[in-house]
Amino acid sequence: MLYNMKELLEKADENGFAVPAFNISSYGMFNGIMDISERLNAPVIIEIHPNELKHIGTDVIAAFRARASESKIPVCIHLDHGASYENIMTAVRAGFTSVMIDASSLPYEENVVITRKVAEAAHAAITYTSVQDSFDPRMQEDRAQWHYAPSLHCGNISVEGELGNIGSIDECTGKVTEGMHFTEPEEAVCYIRETGIDCLAVGIGTSHGLYPKGFLPHIQIDRLKAIRKAIKEAGLETFLVLHGGSGNPKEELTEAAQNGVTKINISSDIKKAYYSKMKEVLQDDNLREPNEIEPACIQAMQAVAAERIKWFGADGKGHLYR
Length: 322
Prior knowledge:
This protein has helices at residues 5-15, 27-39, 50-56, 61-70, 85-94, 108-124, 185-195, 221-233, 250-258, 268-281, 290-311; strands at 19-23, 44-48, 75-82, 98-101, 128-131, 147-150, 158-163, 199-202, 239-242, 261-266. By secondary structure, the protein is α/β, with parallel strands linked by helices.
């Protein structure tokens, strides 16, 4: 079942869990994530960064949509860290059901301007389909002819923005390579009102990439609670998401999921498992066929993905969407 992210995260917010957002960069990885999510009856966000999209191409999104549409679990196909309006329009035309515009490194006013522009465009994006079934709620009063109606899954693409900058960790030095700026509750409320976004990525202590050995990240749960409280009291229906989920302790991620984070991004953790196993498999010089090399890599990735699904409390939650 195809969903936009707002629809997907609404149930997570109501039921105190987080939906995992797994970054994939190949069709094999996509199938592997779909398989393990279906096995655990867990909602899932298939997340693709613009650089990953350049690698796999936009044509493959139609195949992703086809499998997701037939799946018994809810699936969102989301553009991760779109850096420009052009990135967003590429994703919209390709068939993504959700997009992120990341202007967090810009001054606040510039962040608002481009994010609002993206939200207006994505929310207006729509495709039409012919309707003949008299039981379809989109059917018009005059049923003597076919009518065109908005697609159930192509309209109203959800939008994620980012306020605060979580930075990236240099794995060798352990230093944050970008300035880290934590999200303030009052600023979050203003940003949501001024942009019209559906989901907000917050800076509460995580960083992109894998943390160096011995480095202990700390998610500021009190800050998270304050941001969520401010948004709720303002009467806004915007859901909180956490970037940089790889490498964080289970206890912190679980606590974040139980206190208002409804989406947690995982990229480095599953890719490390996938490519570490590939390096191991390729020690056998006789192997050259992808169907001999990749299955073990996908299984290694799935083991990590399954663990994160359970950490976030998403396992078994597919029934909530039926």
